[in-house]
Structure formats: structure tokens, C-alpha cells
Amino acid sequence: MRTSDFEYELPAELIAQQPAAERADARMMVMDRATGARVHRQVKNIGEYLRPGDLLVVNDTRVIPARIFGVKEESGGRVELLFLEPAAAPGCWTALCGTSRRPRLGAVLRLADGQFRATVMELEGGGRLTVRIEGGLPLLDLLEAHGVPPLPPYIHRPHSGPGRPEDRERYQTVYARVPGAVAAPTAGLHFTRALLEQLRTRGVEQATVTLHVGPGTFKPVAVEDLDAHTMESERYEVTSSSSSRINAARAAGGRIVAVGSTSVRTLETVADAHGRVHAGQGRSAIFIRPPYRFKAVDAMLTNFHLPRSTLFMMVCALAGYDATLAAYREAVRERYRFYSYGDCMLLV
């Protein structure tokens, strides 16, 4: 298959700019993978489609307020950085520069109205650079105090500084624990603590994995030949406790229900050919597209994704190409809300 096979028509007004008023009130299309049959519900009804013994696997990464604004010390020109992850050198981070003219090597950037500084240590391709942080506190603390949530590029709202409590709360799952993502694992945004507890009382337990979502999650595939596409790697960790719970659930006949594409990628990265999940940490660059034989994942909750994206391709691999395209066309007709703050699909 080729990239153009994963195109679909989406009216711009269906791209969600705000989350649902209540997390679990988001709409949920439920699709039976065996028959392609679809029904329209809400996330709060998800327990009707899960069975005692099923295991939800959620990604507990925490989105950091990674976008920061400032000026070049030398010229006073405005600069915007999106911090991605720690670099190899102590005190240094990799970042994306959002200005049209990248700062030169050695340039000093005054960020957050001078609250801290960053010196450009290395220039890379694609607008990336490595900076050394000088601010008296760890960068994560500085970002929590002065940063802005890194909303996706298709959410067109003006930035109003770090004081956006609605985004700081809603562009974060209720179980977020490990700081490191620059994009939310969006399927998890629909869960409330009350809903998770309700599922527990029905015998549907939860296990966590960690995958720190990077900016590549928003990039459509730029080449027509899928074999020529290179995934951006992302950091993951699966603890021995989680791997044991996942393997035990499968051995007992329960389904592994991955919450979001990030949980799917993590599980499929650490699963062996027999579907057994192994604890570990590293970087995942797995590219899941048709045809792909899933090893560890039996069902999936996922938002509606960008055309030509690797996330859309993953859904096609799990639910079937024709069935997924039909579901997306129906979602457009039914006026579902798309992308990060939008509605979702449950594939069972």
C-alpha cells in the first residue's frame, strides 16, 4: 500500500478546538472488528463493551508545558522553543526552534522574560537544536512555572502565556505520572477517575506503560512509498509489574485493551512473537501499518486521526483498511469531532 491510500476528506469545522465539556461525555463509535458493525455511544458507556478479566493498558506519560517564548540576547529578535527531551550532555536539552531564522551557534536566548537563559550548543536538521540551560533550577521546574502546553498545530487558538488552566488540566490524562511528553496520549483524555473506578468494580483492571510522545505524532507521511518512511523514535518503559499483569491477563483469557496508539506502539515493541510482553526501556520506532499481525493487543480505544498519518495507518492495520475508511466516512457524516480534543473509536 502507498501513502495516498490513506487519504480521506475531512471538513475543517470537524477538527475539535476544545475538549468536550466533560471528559467521559465524548462520543465513542464502537466497531466490531470481526463484522465491521458500528454503533454510536459515549465514553461513559465503555464498560458495556468490556468483560471481567479484560485489562486496560494506559500510557502514564505526563505532558510537560514545553513551549516557551523569549528573545535572542544579541538582536532582541523573538524566539520560540519547544523542548523535546534531555540531551546527552549534562544540563542540555534538545528543542525545536519555531522562528523563521534559527539562532546561530553560540547564541544566547533569554526565555520567559529573562527568567532563564539557553545557549545554543549544536544545530541539527529540521529546526532542531541543542541548548544548555542556565536558570538555577531544573528545566522541568522552569517549564512548569513559565511554559505553555504544547497544543497541536491544528488547534488554532492564540497563546496567552502559561496561565491556561483549562489546557493544563484537559490536555493531560488523569493518571499522568511521568513527565516527558510533548503531546498527550489523546485517547486517555476521555477517562475520569470515577469511570476508571467503575470499570474496576466490573472486573476490568488497569496496567500502565510509559511512552513519551514526541512531535512526530503530528507529522503526515511525506513520501508515497511507505517503505521509505522513517518513524521518529520515542522513549518508552515497561515495568516488570506491568508486564506481569499484562501476561497474566492474557493467560487467563482476558483481552488487552490498549488505550491509544502510544500504548499500542509500546506493547507491540516489547512483545515477542508469542505475544508475551517483556519489561524494559529504550526507544521505539515501530511502524504499524497493513498488513501487520498484532502480537499483544486485542482491542483499542483511539481518537480519529490525521489523513496520511502513521496513526491512521495503525487503525487500518487493526480494524481492516476498508472497514476503517467506512467508519471514518460515517464519522464525518455523523459530525464526530476529530483529532486530539475530539471524539474516539473503540475497536473490539
How would you characterize the overall build of this protein?
This protein is α/β, with parallel strands linked by helices. The chain folds into 2 domains: 3-63 and 171-347, 3-Layer(aba) Sandwich (QueA-like), CATH 3.40.1780; 67-146, QueA-like (Thrombin, subunit H), CATH 2.40.10.240. It is built from 7 helices and 17 strands. It has helices at 139-146, 165-170, 193-201, 240-251, 261-270, 310-319, 321-333, and strands spanning 27-31, 38-42, 55-59, 61-63, 67-72, 78-86, 92-97, 108-111, 116-123, 128-134, 178-181, 205-211, 234-238, 256-259, 280-284, 299-303, 344-347. A hairpin with a 6-residue loop joins β1 and β2 (38-42). It is globular, with a radius of gyration of 20 Å.
Spatially, the strands of the biggest sheet line up as 2-1-17-16-14-3-12-13-15
**Which outline best applies?**
globular
Summarize the helix and strand pattern as letters: EEEEEEEEEEHHEHEEHEHEEHHE
Q: Rg, please?
A: 20 Å
Biggest sheet descriptor: 9 strands, mixed
CATH class of the largest domain: Alpha Beta
Could you list some keywords that capture this structure?
348 residues, alpha/beta, QueA-like, Thrombin, subunit H, 2 domains, 6-stranded antiparallel β-barrel, 7 helices, 20% helix, 26% strand
